[in-house]
Design goal:
α14 crosses α15. The protein is built from 16 helices and 9 strands. The model has no long low-confidence stretch (mean pLDDT 81). With 484 residues, the chain is α+β, with helices and mostly antiparallel strands. It has 3 domains: 62 residues, no CATH class; 118 residues, Nucleic acid-binding proteins (OB fold (Dihydrolipoamide Acetyltransferase, E2P), Beta Barrel), CATH 2.40.50; 272 residues, no CATH class.
């Protein structure tokens, strides 16, 4: 196999899916894997087909291990009906959430350590989505808190066809804990450990940047600044979110693979301009992506994109061509799925890898059809290449991701073919300008005002272009998807 890690990662993902669908006992999986291990030890080699079968079994084992529930898991106690609960545990990713027609509130995640029963406190485990009132004690990453509220399981069908139960499952959560009154929460202490300390420092940096951005930019501009660079898009109006959804460009507002790719490009370009050698340049880019992941909230989509970005960046630099990129992509998928097999069910994971596969597999073939066989002389042929390359990339990414978008969201967006040709480089300008704005505003807010004005002009142009694309006939089609 020219790119062995790519089919191995596909076999591992297929094994995870098989484990979810069939739920084979772990004993049967181990018995199936034993002959392969014996053959490998005896022959000191393994046929590629047996290797793929081995990783298929390994994926099923990983899914079976991930699906086990501890005896003290709160998932064994909660139901669709809300029930009161008094509990203690650790909070993470606390932020603001705003829904149309509803007041702002705080939300995040809560990991149980113990809960109160009639006989006293008992150990408990499990992760739940946390809904908090806007008022009350300020909470930071890793704080140990006592909550008095109500808890329920996730609901399968909600507004806008949102499957809350599936969304919670992907995020390793078993339900929703709601606290309606400020008196229902009491901060007990701060979590220890270098992970919580690092996240709190990153949270402090994020809040500092938000304050500086809001000081020099308008309310609308700062909302898009926070969405594009910090992964905080809750202050963008729902009508404008819908506008980006109609044109198939909502991915630029959610920090994920696109943003990590753009950040990598900006860092690598800057380091190349200042003539940093190749190896230190890659190391510094990886470190920059790691810290950007923390500042952007370290959400699962950001973490997965960061891991994939680091692996792909280093792999592309050390390798020589398409097979190396596929190997890097396979290695990134293996790393992510080993630590978090439920990422396979996350649309952001599927879309990110599908888009990259489309760019690697389809875009070069399209370019060869229209460019290599083109009889035009040199200069005209080069101009033709500049037209074909972005069109091939846009079509390949759209064709690879359109079935996934249709399955999860029930919409097909042909307008994305044209929109992404403009929106993606436009987003690069906005992100680059936003980085400069945040960097300057940290020590000289007055000097950042011109960059805020440029950001506002670019943003207004982007919104006008998106509005024009959204009004095109047959720009997006809604379809009915039956998953039963």
């Amino acid at each position: 196999m020219r790119s062995p890690l790519a089919p191995i990662a596909a076999a591992f993902a297929a094994g995870i899916s098989l484990g979810w669908m069939v739920h084979p006992p772990a004993v049967c999986l181990w018995l199936a894997a034993a002959p392969l291990f014996f053959c490998a030890i005896r022959r000191r080699s393994l046929h590629p087909l047996f290797l793929l079968i081995l990783f298929l079994i390994a994926g099923a084992l990983r899914a079976e291990t991930d699906g086990r529930l501890p005896r003290d898991s709160v998932a064994r106690l909660i139901s669709d009906e809300e029930r009161p609960v008094l509990c203690e545990g650790t909070v993470s990713e606390i932020g603001w959430r705003q829904s149309a027609g509803a007041p702002a509130r705080r939300a995040g995640w809560f990991t149980f350590s113990r809960r109160k029963e009639a006989g006293g406190w008992v150990p408990a485990s499990g992760r739940v989505c946390l809904h908090l009132p806007a008022l009350g004690a300020p909470l930071a990453e890793g704080d140990i808190v006592r909550f008095s509220g109500s808890i329920r399981a996730g609901r399968a069908g909600m507004e806008d066809s949102f499957n809350e139960k599936g969304w919670l499952w992907v995020h390793h959560a078993v339900g929703v804990l709601s606290v309606s009154e400020p008196d229902g929460m009491e901060r007990i202490g701060s979590g220890s450990g270098w992970i919580h300390s690092l996240k709190r420092r990153a949270e402090g940096v994020r809040e500092f940047l938000r304050e500086r951005g809001r000081a020099v930019a308008g309310r609308r501009e700062s909302a898009y600044l926070e969405a594009l660079l910090l992964g905080q898009g809750e202050w963008i109006p729902k009508s404008e979110w819908d506008l980006f959804r109609k044109t198939g460009t909502v991915h630029i507002l959610v920090v994920s693979g696109l943003h990590v790719g753009l950040i990598s490009f900006l860092i690598l370009t800057f380091l190349a301009v200042v003539r940093v050698p190749r190896t230190p340049r890659l190391l510094l880019t990886s470190i920059g992506l790691f810290f950007y992941c923390l500042v952007a909230g370290a959400h699962p989509s950001v973490v997965r994109a960061t891991v994939a970005g680091i692996v792909l960046t280093v792999g592309a630099a050390l390798g020589t061509g398409r097979s190396s990129l596929l190997n890097s992509l396979g290695l990134a998928a293996l790393c992510i799925l080993w630590f978090d097999p439920r990422a396979l069910a996350d649309p952001s994971f599927q879309l990110s890898f599908a888009a990259v596969i489309g760019l690697i597999a389809c875009a070069p073939r399209i370019e060869r059809i229209f460019v290599v066989e083109d009889p035009l002389p040199g200069p005209r042929r080069m101009r033709f290449r500049w037209i074909v390359q972005p069109l091939a990339a846009s079509f390949s990414a759209w064709a690879a991701t359109a079935p996934i978008i249709a399955w999860h969201f029930g919409v097909v967006t042909p307008a994305a073919l044209l929109a992404n040709l403009v929106v993606v480089p436009w987003a690069l300008l906005l992100i680059a300008n936003g980085f400069i704005l945040y960097g300057i505003s940290g020590f000289a807010p007055a000097a950042a005002v011109p960059f805020a004005a440029v950001f506002g002009i670019l943003l207004e142009g982007l919104l006008r272009f998106n509005g024009w694309i959204a009004q095109c006939p047959a720009g997006h089609w809604k379809i009915l998807v039956n998953r039963d």
